[in-house]
Amino acid sequence: MTAKKAAIMVDEMYQVLEVWFPYYRFREAGLEVNLVAAEAEKEYHSKEGYPCVSEVAAGQADVGDYDCMVVPGGFAPDFMRRSVDVIKFANDMVKAGKIIAAICHGGWLLCSTEIYKGKKATSFMAIKDDIINAGAEYVDAECVVDGNLITSRMPDDLPAFCTAVLKALEK
Questions:
Q1: 45, 52, 68, 105: which is the annotated catalytic residue?
Q2: Which CATH class is domain 5-169?
Q3: What are the residue ranges spanned by the domains of the chain?
Q4: What Å distances lie between residue 84 and 59, 91, 161, CA to CA?
Q5: CA 63 – CA 53 distance, rounded (Å)
Q6: Does the pLDDT value for residue 2 go beyond 90?
């Protein structure tokens, strides 16, 4: 694969598998991966307390440097949406037509963008109504790919989710 770069969004209460599984899978595939958050070089903790140190602040991240944005779940997306810089970065990635991938509750952040309008998507069932209200046609499936939008429901879907992201990045 040609050199590509992914931004994996992080914040407090992230779902540990949904950050680290794609992080290592993408690195293994040859991608450069940055952990992007509201603040750079800050330690964020998973729901279980597992630490993660962000590398890049969303306000300093250059959309032109990234081919893909991955939004993991847990309760982190609720915290992500409290940051104007994180929302701006997400919107800029969407407007630039980058690959946008969200799993589980990750779709909450995307509700603050225009990505769902007229697209098919999935998520953890608890935020189904949020996804629909943001303009998506909800599909209960392991992984839904609609153009540059890739979504999955839960950690069990990670193999299909990561495979779909990597396939999209090959284009």
A1: 105
A2: alpha beta
A3: 5-169
A4: 9, 10, 27
A5: 20
A6: no
Are the C-beta atoms of 109 and 79 separated by less than 8 Å? no
Report how far residue 16's alpha carbon sits from residue 97's, in angstroms, rounded to the nearest whole number: 27
Please confirm, yes or no, whether 45 is among the known catalytic residues.
Answer: no
| Among 104, 111, 143, 162, the one annotated catalytic | 104
pTM assigned to the model: 0.97
What φ, ψ does residue 5 adopt, rounded to 5°?
-135, 135
* pLDDT, mean over the chain: 97
Amino acid in position 56 = V
**Is the pLDDT at 3 greater than 90, yes or no?**
no
Handedness of CA 145, 17, 9, 123 (dihedral sign): positive
**Residue 105 annotated in active site:** yes
